[in-house]
Amino acid sequence: MNLLSPRYLVFIAAIVTLAVSLALAAPWWIPLTAAALTVVGITDLLQTKRALRRNYPILAHFRFFFESIRPEIRQYFLEDDTVAEPFSRNQRSIVYQRAKMDTDKRPFGTQLDVYAPGYEWINHSISPAPEQHHDFRIEIGNHPDCPRAQPYSASVFNISAMSFGALSANAILALNGGAKAGGFMHDTGEGSISPYHRQNGGDLVWEIGSGYFGCRNPDGTFSEANFIANATTPQVKMIELKMSQGAKPGHGGVLPGAKVTIEIATTRGVAMGQDCISPSRHSAFDTPLEMLAFIDRLRTLSGGKPTGFKLAIGHPWEFFGIVKAMLATGITPDFIVVDGGEGGTGAAPVEFTDHIGTPLQEALLLVHNTLVGANLRDRIKIGASGKIITAFDIARTLALGADWCNSARGFMFALGCIQSQSCHTDRCPTGVATQDHNRQRALVVPDKTRRVANFHENTLKALAQLIAAAGLTHPSQLKAHHLVRRISPNQVKLASALLPYLEPGELLDPSQLSRLPPVFGLYWPMAQAESFNPVC
């Protein structure tokens, strides 16, 4: 061991300082500090688990420290305003400004490169329309096959699925209070309806996942009696069967027993202290036909409330099989929520986050086109979620084929989330995604309730201005030809020319399949209503 090597200098300096300070009777804190560093250095040299500590005693700890605060250094000092990782500073700032009722105007022009491929805009009209009231709504669930239908008038911008357990009690209280104040809907997430969802009385979309939380038997199967007890409460406006989510499609989950508190156990209908398992697939059905029968059963048991399903698109033939089952049975859901692969979650394997699940644009196009091609689009509303923050995000998504949009992380920012990306650690610095009572008390519910409502209202005001500039009076009038995308520095195309769109009924004519986009020509014939597996 060459103790004169620069990598040992700090260690040697600590030993020398200790000896000199003792010899000269220096103030007590000097030899104490030197002694502590010396002990650290000796420990580093003797331990066998970390090579860096053996080769760089004491000094290695500086690296570990700066590595631990690297995300904060990047966010506070080095982050570009427009680079989204996963959301840019500009995206977060617009939410904070609108939530706090601060000015959301920007001086000196755009920071975006308008000549970069992928840049998008909406064409304006030389004769703008009069600006309409910003409370844009659509009707969901006026189902022709359900005489007891209870249609719901939904905002075009709503809170996406986030469960109690993933979010804190105070976060749920503030989100639902904001939904109540702003007249929009709050998706419960698959963790079921907690007391915090109920307290403020905001409209709920009850999401039912494969664990059937809130409507399960002790063995984890679906409980009709428990479902009726929750689904028929007036606060529940819609029922959403979760097939998969964009951030981790095809992946189940386990909430360790140590985290299953009495509140979570009561809310989900599971045993306290035992692992809470979300299977990767449903036990109530195995085929597209059985799935639609289950959806129809839920709609009937709920008293005719709008009932649909949420999914991230994977194998195209599986969704096509669901649509073929609709054609075979005449049973159609009231809505489908398309969750893009760019969606977020509290925790997911990196391979799923980065490389599983179809991004929202392609997923939305597939769902919209399939329903149009099967002559079912007018019976089924489409919601969409996946990194939707601004009024332009909403307008773009509606132009591509959606009827309404959901946002999860946008409303988390409204609650005060700073994108620390520590949701999975239970150490959320702002009390949004934690069950630590000391941390979540920092989230003051009345203040954050107002911010949630403000973000929703100011975003829709911006949407009203945007569509008026385009010469329109309601977001439902947005179509693909309103959206323009740059292909290269000297070429742009309308989305309607760039992306494939089917004509009504085209999928029902076998002679047309060969001229349709390959995904339909190849996979539509392979799909079957009797199974999620393709016809070989």
From TrEMBL:
<dbReference type="Pfam" id="PF01645">
    <property type="entry name" value="Glu_synthase"/>
</dbReference>
<dbReference type="InterPro" id="IPR027283">
    <property type="entry name" value="YerD"/>
</dbReference>
<dbReference type="InterPro" id="IPR002932">
    <property type="entry name" value="Glu_synthdom"/>
</dbReference>
<dbReference type="InterPro" id="IPR024188">
    <property type="entry name" value="GltB"/>
</dbReference>
<protein>
    <submittedName>
        <fullName>FMN-binding glutamate synthase family protein</fullName>
    </submittedName>
</protein>
<dbReference type="GO" id="GO:0006537">
    <property type="term" value="P:glutamate biosynthetic process"/>
</dbReference>
<dbReference type="InterPro" id="IPR013785">
    <property type="entry name" value="Aldolase_TIM"/>
</dbReference>
<feature type="domain" description="Glutamate synthase">
    <location>
        <begin position="155"/>
        <end position="472"/>
    </location>
</feature>
<dbReference type="GO" id="GO:0015930">
    <property type="term" value="F:glutamate synthase activity"/>
</dbReference>
<comment type="similarity">
    <text>Belongs to the glutamate synthase family.</text>
</comment>
